[in-house]
Amino acid sequence: MYDDNSHYKCEKVLIAGGDSSDDLSAIHASTELYDQSIRLWTNTGYLNIGRTCFAASILPDGKLLISGGYDGVNLTASAELYDSLTGRWINTTKMSWERWWHTLSQLTDVNVLALGGDYHFEPSTCELYNTSTGLWEPTGRLN
Hints:
Neuraminidase, four-stranded antiparallel sheet, globular
């Protein structure tokens, strides 16, 4: 299974989406949360778009941002936020470019930088997710 896992508040691990085939044809929208304090997996909300090969980053407010990936048919620029209080995924604005195999990096100013990845564009493109406004904006390029 191909998936992205993100450590959530250091005591929990969230497994989201993924693929259970070698040819990326069985994309999942399910998510599970592992709580190490009770050693138990529980199902938690479904992604709005099943995806694999996406990136994830924990935001300062505790929400988890995921972006991009492959939905079984196309690469996507969509992004979602996981709210641990409700166990639900909420759509947020789309990135400027479809990306997969990219990186999300939390910056010291609390914003998130999306960079690189692969698709039919120059992989040196970068964009910034503004955690205050929930908007993506292009920013600089990798050399």
